[in-house]
Amino acid sequence: MTGAGWARCFIGICWREGLRFIQQRSRFVSALVRPLIWLFVFAAGFRSVLGVSIIPPYETYILYDEYIIPGLIAMIQLFNGMQSSLSMVYDREMGSMRVLLTSPVPRWFLLVSKLIAGTLLSLPQIYVFLGIAWLYGIELPPLGYITVLPALILSGLMLGALGLLLSSMIRQLENFAGVMNFIIFPMFFASSALYPLWKIEEASPLLHDICSYNPFTYAVEGIRFMLYVKFDPFSIEMVAGFLVVFLGGAIAAYDPAKGLIARVRTGGAGA
Amino acid sequence: MTVPDQTQVPALAVDGLTHKIGGRTILDSVGVAVPAGRFVVLLGQNGAGKTTLFSLVTRLYTAQAGAIRIFGHDLRQESSRALSQLGVVFQQRALDPDLSAHQNLWYHAALHGMPWGTARKRIAEELGRVGLAAYAKRKVRGFSGGEARRVEIARALLHNPRLLLCDEATVGLDIRSRAEIIADVRGLVRDRNLTVLWATHLIDEVQPDDLTIILHQGKVLNQGPARAIIAAVGASSLNEAFRSITEGKAA
After folding, report:
1. How much is the pTM?
2. What is the ipTM of this complex?
């Protein structure tokens, strides 16, 4: 297949993911409602009792609801990545994944295309959320809305790759509740999304260590810095590193020769 | 890379294929040669290994031992070339129920890298051929079993493959739909010189001159024209010959 053929394949995968997203309007609404509840209810309550002292990238004392914004952005991406994972499992159960996997295009390209499509879909959700937050009174540096874009793409790819890797291990849709309990909640809560790491360390050094190993922490911090037009190379490097690990794992898992998917089996009643 | 002589190479050559799942041998040294331009039946009971064989030929996963060549292209070494020659109708429905027939075919065309103009033309042709042009914009969720199968056949042929694999394509269909689909696929062999490997457990779908491969408990027990298989075991029908061959093996 030519390069143009590969490009058409990529466009086709993006088109299908976009179409599915448009058809599932509730997915867009819930992607927005979830962080907005955290912002309007949780953060509003903590605003009066919890202030965040001046720590990078902030140059002044900020309110809690401003602090929590990068974590909520990453939360949108985390759920989006898990949604991609869910759709892979659904496709496998419905049999339509076979159509994808029997394409003459190499499987790694199919997975990367699906990953990019999912990341692109998360961007409008994030910017709508940021728009609502702005209307609510949370004003970020205007340039930050643009400079954050590379961090959003990188963290979206990393969390999407994690979703792809998980989808290769989940046998049935019913098992997906386990992902909620054992992946999404621990990743979100044991990170710097809700509290700065120094505050966590004061409370529990063990929890601080756990947070330090959590990829989600670096996704949040990468977004936080670039939202304030600053660059935290360590966070970005960590996110990139986790992206390589998760994507490599997903590609290996979907490899027909050695992948987990061979053990899961891709549907079909016959032997 | 060698370019195979297309006039002599079999459409599908499977050699020494062995595959185990969970320690159980599903396919045991399977060897099959499907000549180009023929309707070939892969006959076996449920659990014989037909779907696993198809999964390996379509590279859903890779065999632990053995080789598969599609028109001379090794599936491991030249998977892209091999898969581009292949159209597949899976046993399990493999349409996206939330997409229309046209959108399902469009997605398939994109996955095969077809130019948009060619894709548009081929979708119209194939949906017209299977009599579903009027339903192109309808979501396939509302289609009957027979209509969904026809969409799947149209999709499998969209990129002009030379080898069509049909895995129990008539399962769950009424008698009329079954007859229509078999007649349609046999017509493709005649009119387009397409090669078809038709997996089934329904003996009445086999015609006397069909090349037939009998797969039982993961092993190929016999292959040749159905008429010759019947004669070889001294049976009066393929049903009787199949029973004799498979029960003899079981004993």
Report:
1. 0.86
2. 0.84
